[in-house]
Amino acid sequence: MDSEALQKSSASHPKPSGLTLQYGTAGFRTKAEQLDHVMFRMGLLAVLRSKVLASTIGVMVTASHNPEEDNGVKLVDPLGEMLHPSWEEYATQLANAEEQELQTTITEICQKAAVNLHKDASVFIGRDTRPSSKKLSQSVIDGVSVLGGQYHDYGLLTTPQLHYLVCCQNTQGQYGKATLEGYYEKLSKAFTELIKQSPISGENQRHLKIDCANGIGALKLSEMKPYFPKEMLIRLYNDGTKEKLNHLCGADFVKVHQQPPRGLVMEPGERCCSFDGDADRIVYYYTDTTGRFHLIDGDKIATLISVFLKELLAKVGQSLELAVVQTAYANGSSTRYLEETLKVPVHCVKTGVKHLHHKAQEFDIGVYFEANGHGTVLFSKAAETKIRQLAKEEKDDGKREAAKVLENMMDLINQTVGDAISDMLAIEAILALKGLTVQQWDGLYTDLPNRLLRVQVAERRAVATVDAERRAVSPPGLQDSIDALVGKYRAARAFVRPSGTEDVVRVYAEADTQENADALALEVSMAVYQLAGGKGAPPQLL
Ligand code: 16G
Ligand code: ZN
């Protein structure tokens, strides 16, 4: 390590003294102007991680669905997974080291994590469309360069594209070509194959309106358009040419407010969807003939995919184990439908993609989705080999065709992380193959009315949870209060958890009617406010 060069380079990305930040659920995230030093240092960390694993590491500059003024950064591990939790602590240490401690902090990390500084390093970098992202990604490059790492700056990318590229690079092309064309070709080929087998092939068109949250999704979908089969007619809204990123639009806005994004006019029954700012989340929706808005969230996406996969597996005649992974936010009706009607095992884990992804890896086929629309499907190596073999060699025509559909689904789904583009194509293919309208899909089950609230407290860590965040163990008495409140309503459920991205405690409640869900959410919020050191004005319904 060239100490002098490091010191000099770091001095041009100075850390505001006293500022401490935490590598949270999805990396660092805060106001863009506080992040220059963090970016530089994540460049350093990516080099160390790359050296120790002898693999390419990804660095994505984005703050996803958060306001345009924010930014963030997260590291991507070799197979496209989130940074391993054991390194999150190093990330936090490095980001918070004062200028004069930087060198020793690096040395300490190298010792603890057995990094050999003489090894090569390679880093892939991507960024979203925020005005601050370009400069911040240059700071990442400065960090990578000063430790002698090689880098490839892909410029503007969706988050899932970076995950894909990293995975392709580290599997020597087995997962696909490590280029954007490779990504577009892989997905569109699988999608075209699937559509060919559907009744709409040839003449019928598929219309879809897409709200791109004024973010990167618009750019990348435009690039991908020429690769789509001619039946697929997409129209992009909120493409970033007029309005601000994520402002009154995008998947998070639509999910949280349960209303359509600004700038998208819907005819009754028209299928529409929203991406978030970095295109790793998607939700669908439509209005019915009475003008009522219907949201189809991540739970219903997981259910549609599970129905489809379960039918295919039955046709293929293989006993591959299919399971669904959700979080406590999953609507109770979805869990019930999956377990009782579809008879697919459901597992609940803590909020955050890394937890869902990890759990889903335990099964032959693991479908995971957060209610907010982040999710994908993972196929184990053994399942993949079996499916590819059947698609090629199975003598029975029906079974072989079903295996081919499975094979194409496997290639269409971005298995490295939830991907709005890939999920959207998978959903469109399933709807086409099954001949389902958006209303029929929505009709699989009826969501229980629910409400999400946030409570300001002096210290959010005063609330601690167990059982995949479904029960609070501190402060004392809180869970008893929640149980008593839930007991007052029918079909009710509620839980509280400290946010991993904001300084608040989140409260979720569901019940038989919207009024009851609202009332329960508010009562539970009051309990949190009183027992966990509420600050500011008492909680209110939004
Ligand atoms: C992050 C997570 C998302 C989770 C959300 C919860 C990733 C890539 N993203 O955005 O999965 O739903 O945090 O936020 O892991 P909260 O802890 O503030 O409720
Ligand atoms: Zn996102």
Name its key features.
542 residues, alpha/beta, Alpha-D-Glucose-1,6-Bisphosphate, Chain A, domain 3, 4 domains, five-stranded mixed sheet, 41% helix, binds 2-acetamido-2-deoxy-6-O-phosphono-alpha-D-glucopyranose, binds zinc ion
What does this structure look like?
This protein is α/β, with parallel strands linked by helices and 542 residues long. The radius of gyration is 23 Å and the shape is globular. Helices cover 41% and strands 19% of the residues. Helix 10 packs parallel to helix 11 (332-341), helix 10 packs antiparallel against helix 14 and helix 17 (478-486) runs antiparallel to helix 18. The chain has helices at 3-11, 36-53, 85-96, 102-112, 133-146, 159-170, 180-196, 216-224, 251-257, 298-316, 332-341, 353-360, 381-393, 397-412, 420-434, 438-442, 478-486, 514-531, and strands at 28-31, 56-61, 70-76, 122-127, 150-156, 206-211, 232-237, 272-275, 282-287, 293-296, 322-327, 346-349, 365-369, 375-379, 450-455, 464-466, 471-474, 493-498, 505-510. The mean pLDDT is 96. The longest helix is centred in the middle third of the chain and has 19 residues, at 298-316. Strands 1-3-2-4-5 form a five-stranded mixed β-sheet, with helices on both faces. Strands 7-6-8-9-10 form a five-stranded mixed β-sheet, sandwiched between helices. A hairpin with an 8-residue loop joins strand 2 and strand 3 (70-76). The structure holds 2-acetamido-2-deoxy-6-O-phosphono-alpha-D-glucopyranose (16G) and zinc ion. Residues 25-26, 64, 351-353, 370, 372, 374, 499-502, 506 line the site of 2-acetamido-2-deoxy-6-O-phosphono-alpha-D-glucopyranose. 2-acetamido-2-deoxy-6-O-phosphono-alpha-D-glucopyranose (16G) is lined by residues 25-26, 64, 351-353, 370, 372, 374, 499-502, 506.
